[in-house]
Amino acid sequence: METNPAFVQTVLHNTQKALQHMPPLSLSPGSTDFSTFLSPNVLEEVDSFLVRITSCCSTPEVELTLLAFALARGSIAKVMSSLCTITDHLDTRYDASSLISSMASVRQNLLLKYGKPLQLTLQACDVKGKEDKSGPENLLVEPWTRDGKC
């Protein structure tokens, strides 16, 4: 890669262009958009190639490309590794607005698709009192005393 920087830039540009059309989690095994020709081995080779590019020519664009690929794969370990690399350059500006927007869009779509209201019910109440006010229905509304009674 050090001997042919034009090749690296071409591959990087094409990868960035492809990742613009791949939202986060689109390459994860559970995705409906997941392509069968992108086996885990192929994805691992792409990842290792991007890591090698990052090690030889670290720029904000390269680091964001690595992060976008990790997000597309849904790999928490790779996302954390990419974020650690980015935090090594806190004074550098990153143009990550489109990536953040894509992440927010995927999050919203998944919440709409799989989200359900969370209903909490009280199943039991460990109270010592035997009065009418010591039942589970009063646990959250009546003030407590020091001895655990409602």
From TrEMBL:
Highest taxon listed in the record's lineage: Eukaryota
Show the InterPro entries listed in the entry: ZZEF1
- PANTHER family listed in its UniProt record: NOVEL ZZ TYPE ZINC FINGER DOMAIN CONTAINING PROTEIN, ZINC FINGER ZZ-TYPE AND EF-HAND DOMAIN-CONTAINING PROTEIN 1
The protein here is known as: Zinc finger ZZ-type and EF-hand domain-containing protein 1
